[in-house]
Amino acid sequence: MRVLFVCLGNICRSPAAEGIFRQKIKHAGLDHLISCDSAGTSAYHEGEPADGRMRDHAKGRGYNLTSLARHLTPKDLDHFDLILTMDESNYNNTLRLDPEGIYHKKVKKIVSYCKIHDVGEVPDPYYGGTDGFELVIDILEDSCDELIKELETKIK
Ligand code: 4NP
């Protein structure tokens, strides 16, 4: 099972999702069955580590973010089993890479898994303050917990 997290720059939200999910699947004893990665719908930050503010906030919550930014490609839609986007724009831009709609069923908004947070997207924290980064982690923890519960019932 391969899971891909997608945002715009691949330096804030999707690297955080990747780091949080990776730790949680390890904790759940599923790391031999599930792998994950992240990518951005833009190439603006290609090759860069996650934003220092996102890394600091994640570290404060116990997550180590180590990924380097990369651009989402059409091949990713074939390779990954589940592709989770952070907002409406990422969702639409991901679907646009597959004009035939062959892989559309694999693409979902990560907030569709949320149980505690009633939100329509993971808000972009890039131009905001510290609260935005904490909120990103809150929403991602909620959605990853529920996603893992669902995957456990499917693959164990
Ligand atoms: P991300 O955040 O999509 O969560 O990685 C952003 C990173 C960079 C920019 C916007 C959002 N930017 O405009 O450069």
Description of the structure:
With 156 residues, this protein is an alpha/beta fold. It has one domain: Rossmann fold (3-Layer(aba) Sandwich). The chain contains five helices and four strands; from the N terminus they run E-H-E-H-H-E-H-E-H. The longest helix is centred in the C-terminal third of the chain and has 26 residues. The termini are close together. The site of 4-nitrophenyl phosphate has 10 residues, from loops.
From the N-terminal CA to the C-terminal CA, the straight-line distance is 12 Å
- Number of domain modules: 1
Could you give the order of strands across the largest sheet?
Answer: 2-1-3-4
Oligomer description: single chain
Q: Return the average pLDDT rounded to an integer.
A: 97
What small ligands are held by the chains?
Answer: 4-nitrophenyl phosphate
CATH class designation: Alpha Beta
- The gross shape turns out to be globular
